[in-house]
Write a structure and sequence with these properties.
This protein has 272 residues and is of the alpha/beta class. Helices cover 53% and strands 14% of the residues. Strands 3-2-1-4-5-6-7-8 form an eight-stranded mixed sheet, sandwiched between helices. The longest helix has 40 residues.
Amino acid sequence: MNIGIIGYGSMGKMLAQKFAASGYSEIQKVLVANRSKEKLNTIPNELCICNSNVELAEKSDIIFVCVRPVDIKSVIIEIKDSVKKDALLVSLNGSVTFEMLEKLFKHKIAKVIPSVTAEINRSQTLVTYNTFVTEEDKANLEKILSCMGNVVVLPENEIGMGSELVSCMPGFIASMFDVVCKSAKKHTTLPDEQIIKMVLNTVSATADLMIQKGLSFEEVVARVATKGGITEEGSKIIYGQFPSTADEMFQKTLEKRKTTAQKAAEVFNSGV
């Protein structure tokens, strides 16, 4: 099969390179097309350049649309008459619903939300499908996506919260531990680099411990926070004060996601 990538920005570039390096014998070619041809000047030899989105659509069995939400509509209109009957169209934008897309193009469509951790093959990549997608299509796509890490299939109405938990979460985690490290710096003469390295290695090891041993968060706390000890004091503060911050974080991000979806709907409904 041929895989097409429309849009060679940071996400399109990452997907194209991951797919080309996956070693899957089913993948014959990875095709790319981009509005700005300058971005394709230094493209790796293992990728094939198409002169237009239409050319890419004509040649591809799976088409990943990696463009901004405001550009998705125009791209779909441009390629819809050139997409193969059995091809699978994949959108990388969670705010653009299947209902919106199907107003333009009643076809097999999936939505995929990768994580930045795909760069080290540890993405929790979300995927959801419309009703036209076959089981064979699902198996093919999930195998291809597995080159970046785990694949998590969700219903469309859960893609929003799913994105918060896997796609946005690296940013949330980085923000939280940036605060922790800066607070720690106020109480020590250790250099910033050493503080950050100690915390990151401990975070990574704790996550691996929980996954490998099947431990819950509460079980880890219980193992470390002995009665009347130092860890117990710190844990009390976190459990007492952090829930309101977490609640507000999700409230604000989900509100923003809703607003983004409404704006996308306005774009898709105009002139349809």
